[in-house]
Write a structure and sequence with these properties.
Elements (H helix, E strand, L loop, with lengths): L1 E6 L2 E6 L11 H14 L5 E6 L23 H9 L5 E5 L2 E3 L1 H8 L2 E4 L4 E3 L13 H9 L1 H10 L3 E2 H7 L4 E2 L4 H12 L18 H14 L5 H14 L2 H16 L2 H16 L17 E4 L3 H12 L4 E4 L3 H20 L5 H9 L1 E4 L10 E4 L5 H14 L5 E4 L6 H6 L7 E6 L8 E6 L5 H13 L3 E6 L6 H18 L3 H11 L5 H8 L1 H14 L8 H7 L12 E3 L5 E3 L1 H13 L9 H21 L6 H12 L8 H8 L1 H10 L6 H8 L4 H13 L1
Parallel strand pairs: 2-3, 3-4, 4-6, 5-7, 6-9, 10-11, 10-13, 11-12, 13-14, 14-15, 16-17
Antiparallel strand pairs: 1-2, 7-8, 15-16, 18-19
Helix pairs in contact: 1-2, 2-3, 4-5, 4-9, 5-8, 5-9, 8-9, 9-10, 11-25, 12-13, 13-14, 18-24, 19-24, 22-23, 24-27, 26-27, 27-28
This protein binds coenzyme A (COA).
The site of coenzyme A (COA) has 17 residues, from strand 5 and helix 11.
Pfam family, one: 3HCDH
Subunit structure: Monomer.
Catalytic activity: a (3S)-3-hydroxyacyl-CoA + NAD(+) = a 3-oxoacyl-CoA + NADH + H(+)
């Protein structure tokens, strides 16, 4: 794993652990052996550390985080050996020097890098902290403020910036190894050896740390590792290196063992797994998507179009009236201009993107598009009409996609002569912002169309997850049950604010009723009316339906379940509370007080239960996919790993018990896994194994 090669009086240690040279078992052993050999050999004047393949070490091996400490690869020991090494050591960086990779480099005497290398300490994103000296060394090089920025955001910086900060000693323009060897020869005789651990920290006033502690209340609400990082960075300022180094080891273990870190690590792997589709090989041919058509310039259609414009793809957007088209274009332009005002885009970028957009009133203008996405309102008749026309005019091989969130994609595909080209692309509102894309695989969707859409999702910066056809697909089907249970809780005596507060405390930025007010009460109402009619049931008449009928439709009408001030902060409305009380009285319900714990258990329980059904029916491929959908589409806190992972953290039997206690029938799959003492991760493994057989 670590190759030793001599270049005159320099020993080069090359780390080979593809794809990203993570610090896996074998790497520390190889490095330590190489360093010991170099120390003992008088002919060696200096050592260069470099990564083989596409990158320097991109971090600790996250897969080993579950191992007992003694069995984990000895990163700290390697770092200590480097820090105490009697000869100059040079880290030669390319690709990404992240986490443990940067910590190794920081323990070397010098760092050189190619200009496009990226350096960072992203541990916070995994709910941990730099555990091999990073919290103590980085502030000693770049100062307290910059180190806090880097460690709390987890975002890497470019080598060019690192050079300005003194984190990199030299930029290498040509071949990295040759440059690093030349550098090593230049410094081979320099003594004393520079050691970051012996330096002091710049700019570590108490105010810097107080401000950081204040800031994380907003940016990392409810999370453990950011505050540990701040404590440790402060120790780097105020305490001897050795003391900070020891404290870091202990706090790293504390963070590593936390449910938050388990949740974030689960997300790291499951997000990458969700990009893989069983049965679809890497060699599945992809279609070349060069021109996109969008039908409908409303909020959804406009947002969808922006994704492709941002990625440099020309879009033709079609509407039925001049007014609707003008309005849609106006919204897109305003969105871009507001990004420009915030400094996220230049004025040129705005114009470049708008220039890629062609407005049209004629669907015939979509005849050259490689992908056409329909984003009109949810009406099967209208959609069928559009797809019949698309079938007649779209070029051969074009992908025909619907953005429906509830309708049957098979039925839509059936009106065309090419159902294999039809797919659902379910964007989430606002479509230019939300990262999730449910990719709905219909009965006849071809592998090529599916694989092309997965690749396209990545290109436009979305997390694409494959789902099957059913009412609401994965996300909306689950949120529907969740909404029902939330309303039941209010029926029984909780206030909407109690319900939302419990979910906010769990880490969701919005509870179910805050979400309803934002989406518009009329939307959910229309769905409930539609469903009731379909089932021949009476018109819905719950307390929420009654609020809609008062004309309060949520934030867009200035109020719904709550009132809103200019800051859009919800405030309970006394009339609405009275309406709820009158409703309960009419139904003969004696309200009872409901604890936050009960609210959380019931709401997460209904999500998990519906998730289990979805999984059993094969609508989602994996429980992990459901977690990805819920985190990126519905604001479930990443540090809880998504609802299905959260179920495992609670213990599935507890989830089953809560469902039964509150009158629900647990899904058979959930009951089976609970009985067998398993988690949904076990189920994912079982399914993966059986599909490989
Ligand atoms: N430990 C274990 N496996 C890792 C890993 C790590 N630190 N970093 C990446 N991998 C694996 C991924 O799971 C993926 O495996 P797969 O192909 O089986 O799905 C593979 O390496 C490639 O990673 P991917 O993220 O798909 O590649 P990329 O080119 O888009 O991004 C990185 C590369 C390094 C930027 C990205 O993987 C990353 O950010 N890794 C984590 C770095 C980190 O947090 N380090 C600190 C750990 S404390």
């Amino acid at each position: 794993m670590v190759e030793q090669s001599r270049h005159d009086d320099i020993l080069v240690l090359t780390i080979h652990n593809p794809p990203v040279n993570a610090f896996s078992p074998g790497v520390p052993e190889g490095l330590k052996a190489g360093l010991s050999a170099a120390a003992a050999d008088d002919r060696i004047a200096a050592v260069v550390l470099i990564g083989g393949g596409r990158t320097f070490v991109a971090g600790a091996d996250i897969k080993t985080f579950g191992l007992p400490r003694e069995q984990a690869p000895d990163l700290r020991g390697t770092v200590q050996q480097l820090d105490a090494f009697p000869k100059p050591t040079v880290a030669a960086l390319h690709g990404t020097a992240l986490g443990g990779g940067l910590e190794l480099a920081l323990a070397c005497s010098y760092r050189v890098a190619v200009p496009d290398a990226r350096l960072g300490l992203p541990e916070v994103k995994l709910g941990v902290l730099p555990g091999a000296g990073g919290t103590q060394r980085l502030p000693r090089v770049v100062g307290a403020q910059k180190a806090l920025d880097m460690m709390l955001s987890g975002a890497p910086i470019q080598a060019t910036e690192a050079k300005e900060l003194g984190l990199v000693d030299d930029l290498i323009e040509g071949g990295l190894l040759e440059g690093a060897l030349a550098f090593a020869r230049r410094v081979a005789a320099v003594r004393p050896l520079p050691r970051i651990s012996e330096r002091a920290v710049d700019g570590g006033s108490p105010e810097v740390f107080a401000a950081a502690r204040e800031a994380i209340k907003k940016t990392h609400r409810g999370q453990l590792s950011p505050s540990l990082i701040i404590d440790l960075a402060e120790m780097a300022v105020n305490r001897p290196f050795e003391e900070g180094w020891q404290a870091e080891a202990q706090k790293f273990m504390e963070a590593r063992e936390s449910p938050q870190s388990r949740g974030l690590r689960h997300l790291f792997f499951t997000e990458r797994e969700s990009a893989k589709i069983p049965g679809l090989g890497k060699d599945t041919p992809l279609l070349d998507i060069r021109r996109v058509g969008v039908i409908g310039a409303g909020t959804m259609g406009g947002g969808i179009a922006m994704n492709f414009l941002n990625a440099g793809l020309p879009v033709t957007i079609v509407e039925t009236t001049e007014e609707a088209l003008d309005r849609g274009l106006g919204v897109i332009r305003r969105n871009y201009e507001s990004s420009a005002k915030k400094g996220r885009l230049s004025a040129d970028d705005v114009e470049r993107r708008m220039a890629l957009l062609t407005p049209s009133l004629d669907m015939g203008d979509l005849k050259d598009a490689d992908l056409i996405i329909e984003a009109v309102f949810e009406d099967m008749g209208v959609k069928k009409d559009i797809f019949t026309r698309l079938d007649a005019l779209a070029k051969d091989g074009a992908i025909l996609a619907t953005n429906t969130s509830t309708l049957d994609v098979n039925e839509i595909a059936a009106v065309t002569s090419r159902p294999e080209q039809v797919i659902g692309l379910h964007f989430f509102s606002p479509a230019n912002v939300m990262k999730l894309l449910e990719i709905v695989r219909a009965e006849n969707t071809s592998d090529t169309v599916l694989a092309t859409c997965m690749a396209l999702a990545k290109k436009i910066g979305k997390v694409g997850v494959v789902v099957g056809v059913c009412d609401g697909f994965v996300g909306n089907r689950m949120v529907h049950r969740y909404g029902e249970e939330a309303r039941r809780l209010v029926d029984e005596g909780a206030s909407p604010a109690d319900v939302d507060a419990a979910m906010n405390a769990l880490g969701l930025p919005m509870g179910p009723f805050q979400m309803t007010d934002m989406a518009g009460l009329d939307i959910g109402y229309a769905i409930r009316v539609h469903r009731a009619r379909q089932r021949g049931e009476p018109e819905p008449d719950g307390w929420l339906d009654r609020i809609v009928k008062t004309g309060r439709k949520g934030q867009k009408t200035g109020g719904g379940i709550y009132d809103y001030d200019e800051t859009r902060r919800p405030r309970p409305n006394a009339d609405m509370q009275a309406l709820i009380e009158a409703y309960r009285a009419e139904k003969g319900i004696t309200p009872r007080s409901i604890s936050a714990d009960e609210i959380t258990r019931r709401l997460t329980g209904t999500l998990i239960n519906e998730g289990a059904r979805i999984l059993d029916e094969g609508i989602a491929q994996r429980a992990g996919d459901i977690d990805v959908i819920y985190i990126y589409g519905y604001g479930f806190p990443a540090y809880r790993g998504g609802p299905m992972h959260y179920a495992g953290e609670q213990g599935l039997q507890k989830v089953v018990d809560a469902l039964k206690q509150y009158g629900h029938t647990p899904a058979p799959l959930l009951e089976r896994l609970a009985r067998e003492g398993k988690t949904f991760a076990d189920f994912d493994r079982e399914r993966a194994n059986s599909s490989q057989k």
